[in-house]
Amino acid sequence: MFDIRLIRENAKLVKENIKKKYEDDKLALVDELIEKDLLWRNIKSKTDDLRHERNAISAQINKLKKEKKDASDLIAKAKEIPGKIEKSDKEADALKSRIDDILKTIPNIIHESVPIGKNDSENVVREVLGEPTKLAFEPKSHVELCEKLGIADFDASSRVAGNGFFYLKGALSLLNQALIRFSIDFMVSKGYTFVEPPLMLRQNIVDGTVDFNFFKDMVYKIENEDLYLIGTSEHALIGMFNSQIIDESELPLKLCGYSQCFRKEIGSHGIDEKGLFRTHQFNKVEQVVICKPEASYDLYDELMNNSKEIYKALGLPARVLESCSGDLGDLKAKGADLEVFSPRSKSYFEVGSCSNLTDAQARRSNIRIRARDGSLFLPHTLNNTAVATSRAMVAIIENFQTEKGTVIVPEILRPYMHGLKEITADWKEDLKKLYNI
Hints:
This protein is an alpha+beta fold. The protein has 14 helices and 17 strands.
């Protein structure tokens, strides 16, 4: 949500920012906002004058009554004022509602370092981490390998729930849990507090963290309840502080949340008929930070570095792709994706997204900080994926497959899998040995 004071003081800057994001259709909204804000303030001023007049007349009436003088004219005048105040309040409320709606559509001011571009074709590679995997054989898809090894059942999941779901079995289930445990341990070692959030949220909480009108078609609603299944634990972690005042001494708040996530994935990408890449249900470990404004871009770098370290430890080649202005969500001031190389498609695919929302999300969620001098200010909020396990498993299976059709387990994950080094068709027997069964 946008700060109306900035529009009052520097509408030109706001309009220039809108043009940088190629959202020229919103330019007229700035003019409408300025007009309605001025009208709202005038009405509020007149309403305050009416209340002052009502109080003054009441005092005069009381004085005349004490003096046993006729106050009928003033009483008649006083009776007219509540109706006028009520009418003014309704006009002001209607204007305020429209003002707030417009403020929610005005994009956040992008950081000066954001590349200017119209769409994702103009995003910029900022860093390449490791050499792309070169296999001496024709790589198989993760679906083919999973089915051949008997570690996932996509046909059964389709029968019981439809496309976009999966059954993980045996060694792959353990790999999924290993990724969760490893990334949580990593984040806790970095000083982040581990949180398991609710998997359902009320609409006002979702709307405080993201544009609900945009997001409502992506999440599942619980029938006859004011509850939605979460699309990411970020919303629940930020929602924990909705309409709360945090003491400045607690900043920065660094949180690591694990949850299952649920999304309809309606749109141009759609749902994969088979596989783990784009699904309705997935597991994710998320990073969230609430901090002082002056610290947010250092912490943005920290969040991205955390993800880079995780994927480096997994031994996966990756790159940082920064979002250009036109591809940046309206709440974001700066954002970038971490992508992993796919030897099958010989291209990179997204495994996580890092965002600095400055004070836009805190304003929507009414999160405030109590400064040491007692004043209140808005914090900055940031988020980034630590690991979305389904995407990470696709990356591991594709990059660590062998010519004989097995998958090497990244060394960092082996302690979480009782020492399993390789997923083979004999994984059941291998696990029996490791578990001393």
